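About this split. The held-out portion is used to measure sequence recovery: a designer receives only the structure tokens and must propose an amino acid at every position. Recovery is the fraction of positions where the proposal matches the reference. Here is one held-out target exactly as it appears in the evaluation file.
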């Protein structure tokens, strides 16, 4: 999936800015985005579109423009943060029956949420969140020979795109891990943002099925470990850069460590369990 400026900006704010509770000068945004190849013109256009979409709000101080995530965008990213930085969220199974009228459109929406079509009006998927309005759902717990669950999943779900997404993430970022302690601040921040962006994309498209139903060689496990270890390895230089260069232009970004990042402990635990720091 190609990297888009608007999506990268949301990642920048969610990972680097919101944990410190502040807004950022446009110049710092432009400099950070330049590290991943976005031109100033493209960044300004993306910021304008995010403002129009209600995701960013700006304020002028003298000749400089500052931007922060809106309250609704912060809430949206906070929900995503549990998925990105947190431990895997366990779930059960849910069968959903659809009314005949409009079944095709509803089924397409369910498939985008990670459900598999069993019949024209019946789908199965992970039991997360509320049941969509107007549908009938049955929560289910596997019994009997549960060792057959991976076979069931292999037949019902197309996991190939998700395997590829995790494998691509590993291929892209695994070579960075041994180099991370020697990477300077601007590059460390850019790499960390790219890592978060790629990991978030892979997770949000993955149906995140129950653990016992996944193949033994599921690459999501290795990708999660890599994410935790590389994120922590890049963070000292990245956070120091944020404090020195973002904080110089805006109130609030003065700490080398984020004040409100409750998932760092979980990342450290995941890295330690895998033999990391």
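Reference sequence for scoring:
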């Amino acid at each position: 999936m190609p990297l888009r400026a608007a999506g990268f900006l949301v990642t920048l704010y969610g990972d680097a800015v919101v944990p410190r509770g502040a807004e950022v000068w446009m110049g710092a945004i432009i400099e950070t985005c330049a590290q991943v190849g976005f031109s100033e013109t493209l960044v300004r256009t993306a910021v304008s579109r995010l403002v129009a979409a209600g995701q960013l709000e700006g304020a002028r101080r003298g000749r400089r423009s500052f931007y922060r995530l809106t309250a609704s965008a912060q809430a949206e990213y906070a929900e995503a943060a549990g998925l990105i930085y947190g431990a895997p969220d366990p779930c059960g199974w849910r069968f959903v029956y659809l009314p005949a009228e409009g079944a095709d459109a509803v089924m397409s929406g369910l498939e985008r949420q990670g459900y598999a079509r069993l019949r024209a009006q019946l789908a199965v998927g992970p039991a997360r969140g509320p049941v969509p309005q107007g549908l009938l759902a049955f929560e289910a717990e596997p019994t009997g020979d549960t060792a057959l669950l991976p076979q069931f999943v292999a037949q019902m779900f197309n996991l190939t795109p998700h395997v590829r997404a995790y494998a691509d993430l590993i291929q892209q970022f695994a070579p960075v891990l041994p180099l991370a302690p020697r990477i300077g601040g601007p590059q460390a921040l850019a790499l960390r943002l790219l890592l978060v962006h790629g990991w978030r994309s892979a997770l949000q498209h993955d149906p995140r099925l129950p653990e016992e139903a996944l193949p033994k060689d599921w690459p999501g496990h290795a990708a999660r470990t890599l994410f935790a270890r590389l994120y922590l390895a890049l963070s000292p230089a990245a956070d120091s850069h944020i404090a020195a260069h973002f904080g110089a232009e805006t109130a609030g970004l003065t700490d080398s460590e984020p004040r409100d990042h409750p998932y760092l402990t979980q990342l450290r635990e995941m890295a330690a369990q895998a033999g990391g720091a």
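Annotator remark: The first strand starts at residue 24 and ends at 25.
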